[in-house]
Request: fold
Amino acid sequence: MTSRDEGLSSNRALWDEWTGIHETSEFYDLESFKQGGIRLREYELEEIGVVTGKKLLHLQCHFGMDTLSWARLGARVTGADFSQRAVDLARSLAAVLDIDARFVCSDIYELPGALDDTFDLVYTSRGVLGWLPKLEPWGRVIAHFLRPGGVFYVSDIHPVTWVFDDTEETTDLKVRFPYFPRLEPVAFPVKGSYADPSADVKTKFEYAWPHSMAEIVTSLSSAGLRIDWLHEWPWLEWQLPFLVPRGDGTWALPPDQEGEIPLYFSLRATKPSA
Ligand SMILES: C[S@@+](CC[C@H](N)C(=O)[O-])C[C@H]1O[C@@H](n2cnc3c(N)ncnc32)[C@H](O)[C@@H]1O
Reply:
């Protein structure tokens, strides 16, 4: 049985390795970003709105491309991640691009001890929740960093999508993985990285924890946040064997598939003022 700490420590080593691969990958296309790109998606720009002058904390920021994109849009940004290599790269990118940004290296659960500040907006997106063993303390960390009246925004793969087998070249929807939260992680053998499946990676497994939609919503509300809305989308930004491309950089169930499932979600919550 893999413990929580063994899983987290192996994942941290994996993210250090992946950062080196991602830095030069076509997937992240860092060279275009250096020319002045914004790596954020239309839906989040619409859902979050204007950030000019806002203090923004980006949780699980990887090497900071999205964090620096928010800065280019006028936010005063802080990014946090537990991979030292990712944080080092984020800091050097900010320096090279002359963008005012702060990056903190810390496990998300320990961040309140490493960063003393409050924010108008706490943001996290695209491939974040599965790396976290428990969401109740995650909700408390978010509430801790929001000023009264501040807003939290998350978008990620929908917990329902998570349960289907994505390990074989099959187009069938086959339920294979747990939906409900549990302490023991699911171990996936590492095959390169999502940004470059052919890359040579030494870490053997990536460890993931399932989280139900009930756990996501309840962890935020029990930390004192008010859920403003929850959007569920029938598309995903990455490829799975049972999805087909829609032609706009997203994937969905084939048009002839009977029935529907949510594949992606976004959620906004507010810390009440009083
Ligand atoms: C998929 S990335 C986020 C992706 C980012 N939106 C992007 O597109 O680059 C997930 C990030 O979570 C970080 N992470 C995983 N577990 C963490 C933890 N317990 N505490 C802090 N960061 C963590 C990893 O280091 C990684 O940079």
Remarks:
- The chain has one domain: 4-270.
- The chain has nine helices and eleven strands.
